[in-house]
């Protein structure tokens, strides 16, 4: 069916033609409850009327000029993002990988300005930062590297959620200029660090004047129940924060935000993007932020997180084959003791979109707009699926 498209994705045998809220309709008219949101993108669900209206109005007014002119909507969006986050300035681009590329360039230039010719960025095992050459190098997954060597120099890796390892790496690398990490590892398997971890990273960065660079591409825009994942750690602010995914609800837009020592590093001519921050994308992102605010979606995430976790724990915890259930807001990970990629197809057959990452972790990223009934439906269907799946496999007791 897709021979003219490069086979870069292992696609499921389904195509959707319409969506409304948390529901998608396929070419046969079958309906699916979307518990994945296009991988943390459609936080407001599908065809949200405010987003549709913003797109139509802005497309009928002005879609694109160029960054060689002022773009007032870009300024408005930057002001809103800095107000929500406490960061100071924003560079706009079109994707998560691009937001991370901007961060990597900031870190390197920051190093050069300090007289470090070969700056080193410390990154994490199990991380995911994108598919460009620099961001795949930063990614802590050998499968993502394979076939693309030589990788980009200037990255060293430490275990995630391990402050001692980070302290040692910082001590070992005088050329270190930045630490880049996710507040919760999404692709890595919904890995949630200890409550004091981000504050610990912040203080290690402060001691050595390294930039703390948080990849909030998946965790940002309400996904964890706060606007940004770092806001769960009181009193800390990153120097660089990267956003994409939920910022546009499907309109491609990414952002790299800076504060403190990272402000003013990139100057005219250092970085740019043709499409980045065009009026259409900025109007949509502004509408997304306003809608999350107006409709109290953060409260919805926090309330339904408890409902979903309670339901999943009741149905699954203690079953042979179920290792743990982890969550932060609307990021849920059910870790099994055995690989379970086949569950994605089985869920599809039951009319639900889920994902499996890191081989053994069922990942749920529902739209932030779901209601209590839809939350229940996710719990019931996923619990049934997992129990059926485990019953069909020979699993060892974890007790
Ligand atoms: C944490 C994180 N960073 C970066 C990316 C890459 O984003 P994009 O696919 O928009 O380039 C992803 C995508 O899954 C992500 O989860």
How would you explain this protein's 3D organization?
The structure is a single chain. This protein has 399 residues and is an alpha/beta fold. The chain folds into two domains: 16-34 and 296-391, Aspartate Aminotransferase, domain 1 (Alpha-Beta Complex), CATH 3.90.1150.10; 51-294, Type I PLP-dependent aspartate aminotransferase-like (Major domain) (Aspartate Aminotransferase, domain 2), CATH 3.40.640. It has helices spanning 37-40, 49-59, 72-85, 96-113, 133-138, 142-145, 163-172, 197-208, 279-294, 297-316, 343-349, 372-391; strands at 16-20, 23-26, 31-34, 89-93, 120-124, 155-158, 176-181, 211-215, 240-243, 254-258, 322-328, 331-336, 352-353, 355-357, 361-364. The strands form three sheets. It has a seven-stranded mixed beta sheet with strand order 4-10-9-8-7-5-6, with helices on both faces. It has a four-stranded mixed beta sheet with strand order 1-2-3-13. A four-stranded antiparallel beta sheet has the order 11-12-15-14, covered by helices on one side. Helix 2 packs antiparallel against helix 9 (279-294), helix 3 (72-85) runs parallel beside helix 9 (279-294) and helix 10 packs parallel to helix 12. The mean pLDDT is 97. The protein binds pyridoxal-5'-phosphate (PLP). Pyridoxal-5'-phosphate binds at residues 39, 95-97, 100, 128-130, 182, 186-187, 215, 217-218, 244.
